[in-house]
Amino acid sequence: MSFTTVPVLDLAKANNPDTKPELLEELRHALMEVGFLYIKNTSIPGNLFEKVRVAGTAVFDISEEEK
Hints:
Elements: E1 8-10, H1 20-34, E2 38-40, H2 46-58
Parallel strand pairs: 1-2
């Protein structure tokens, strides 16, 4: 496995029949050859994204006893 950049996939391509095959090929490459990716244009509202990020990182602040 060799790559020089993290694949960035534009989810907006899924909405257009002309660009959807390109997105699927990019997704296949990212998953099969790299193992991870970054997705942009998800249409997830920023405030929801922030709530999920805060909740996710809060897990690390829980004491070992409580976990």
